Amino acid sequence: MNLHHHARLSPRGRALLVDRILVQGLRVEEAAQAAGVSVRTAYKWLKRFREEGAPGLFDRSSQPHACPHATPQDVVDQVLEQRRSRQTYRQIAAQLSVAPSTVARLLRRAGLHRLAELEPALPENRYEHPQPGDLLHLDIKKLARFRQPGYRVTGNRQINSDGVGWEYVHLAIDDHSRVAFGSIEPDERGISACKALLRAVRYYRGLGVRFERVLTDNGACYRSRSFRRLARRLGMRHLRTRPYTPRTNGKAERLVQTSLREWAYARAYANSAQRAEALVPWLHHYNWHRPHASLGYKPPISRIPLNNVLGLHT
Question: Own/partner pairs for 156-159, CB < 8 Å, 24+ apart?
């Protein structure tokens, strides 16, 4: 409850005022003087207590009981109905003889002031395949090479590594277990995507996991004939996300963001080669030690069958 900073009485003080009058037997004038309020105020709270009891000692809303100038409810309903048919403010105002400012106020109150609010909310797209190997997510992150720490570390924009080029981190993640793998390639062409897929498949087979499907975005490397042929040769059905719908490939998108935050930008590297060397240790930590909220705060390797993991270390 928000009290005025000059208020003499809180609900507890009002209860004490009434108690002094009705229980302790003080006269209204004496109780008002003891509380530091006027006699009229003391009578007001005494009357409210007698009519409403203890709830009457709390502050009331300042909203009026009636507003003769309020927009009639039938007009409000028509405004909302026409807005749901995607009418603009001025179109609604012209048809109903209502000021555009009134239309804007009513729509803002109803949460329909933006056309985007009229679109139904997309359903949650949380899915998980039942077994490791049911689906492999792939994605690529482009990172700049550098000879020395740049602006992100030094704060000096004059230090740069112009002409060094780019490197591409090809990331893979198992849909069920969240076990991840990554490799750094010189580009994002079809042949590099094929090499990255082969490395990922070998890594997962070392854990006893064989994939049935692979999900990618619509990048040119994933639409290349060489990648399609490799997927068929590996016995994997190639699925692609809907255009401009990254939520379909959400696990890979999240892996990209996590890798940037916890590996690529986690500390100051002397150069991009040092950063590349840190990728494998980070992936080991990610798979074997890092707790995942979606897995009950257990590491991804906990979802790989125990006999597969033991076979890896024997």
Answer: none
